[in-house]
Amino acid sequence: MPVYAATTFSPVQDFIEKSRKLRDLYGGSIIISHLSARLVKAALAHNIDIISPGMPDFPTGMPNRILLKNNYFDSNNQEFQEWLENWTNTTILVEWKKVLTECQNWIQEAIPETTLKINYTWQREWLLWGNHTWEIFWGAGNTIPEAMEDLEDRKLSRNWTATNWIGESSSLTGTDAIAWPGLADKDRNPINLNYEDEKLNIDNFYEILAEKLETKNANSKKEEEIEGKFIDPNERLSIPELTKRLVTQHQIRKRLELRYLESFTDIVRKPEPEKNQPGQWTGWFMGDGDRVGKYLKKLAELPDAEEKIRHFSEEMREWGRKFMNGFNNPRKVKQGRVIYAGGDDFLGVIYRTPQNPVQPIEALEWLKTLPEQWEKHGCDITLSVGFVWAAPSVPQRDVLQHCRTAEKKAKKLGRDRLTIRVLFNSGRFIDWTCPWDYLHILDDYRDREGGKNWTHVYNDLEQLKARHAIKPRPESNNTEIENTNLKLALALINLYFQNQGDKIKQDRKKLVDDNSSEKLLNWISDLILVGWQMCS
User: Fold this and answer.
1) Residue 269 lies in a domain
2) What is the C-alpha to C-alpha distance for residues 527 and 520, in angstroms, rounded to an integer?
3) Model's pTM, two decimal places?
């Protein structure tokens, strides 16, 4: 009887999203794909059948959840379980340590101790991160559902251990130690630590590192010279954060046999007054297939489960490949980048330059095409997306967190929909969640002169709010008042959105996943606020 096994590792999203620069996002997604690809390669070397992910020879965007089949052992066979344990843990740890070692060696070769005038004593910290960055989980069973269930049970038991450290913390997340040559010096002691001398050594290291990373290899080919700044001399990164940045360096990438990186420039978002350069708003989108886990479980119960799951995985991976390549096509007008597309989940950003920024209406027009693009994979699953239109000075890591939250909100409110969030520099935001087939309402808007000026409806909304209409007062539970307010809101819809008030009222369950008048009232208010920001 064949035995099935499922495996994954974590933390994946957290690892990718702890990012300040576009380069961090690329580096994080490249590392995840690389580790997954090595797991698949190691299994194939033992003649293990890979059911998913599909396209096992294509490492780009490789998902971190793997399902395999072995025809030689029973699921309770001790030898197989030992092999499974060794395959997952050893492969991930060995490959991750190779990545760390190449990055560490590159730094030490590029910046010798004589240049720094201090010794490299940080070996122990690199080893600790090699051992304690990832948690690996696996499950096995005589059927695919049994293997999946066993994996989920084992994920409930976590044993990840953080590394201890002393001194200042990373300027990116503030949770881990700054990577610098004297990080693990045996003489470092919090009692007698000279922070001023240490700060001078750290400053010197990052200044030299930034200079070395920007120095082009005279023998390198043009396509290897990735544009965009690797590191700012003022940044202070932890070992994992520094590693994500370094794996985009062409020498390290070649040594690790990582995928080719096309040239790119980092997103210039913040204004730079000294250069007379304005900031630019950017659009960040994060999408995920709906109920994919349930869909896979349904496939797993079919007589031809293996082929169904294999086909599904191949279709989704092929869709991700085409979606990423199409969006990033250098022959097209620059509109941004898809950072990763690992099958049914993806992350990207819409941007150009501060001198020629993408307008919100352009981002919105592209979003409207996304459902049609999604359907090209041919699988019976819908899509939920969180989209954040972010102000120039919002930190990138905050934007990514809002992106994740917006995506979760789209799923919570019924799935198969889009949440548009406008995020201001102050950290405040407005958002609106809408089923994909209702986005047309933004195109249906007409002002009192028959034009597209959203200021008309926005001013009317604010006037009604100032008079305590449209949005119910928090202290009021009066159904009659609530219904009166809803009638006013629907009257605005009829006036400005081509008499769609009755249809919206009829579809309230679809729109807000509830029959509540208050939620529909808020939905109409959010529609106007977001429409005013995105369509004006």
Assistant:
1) no
2) 10
3) 0.90
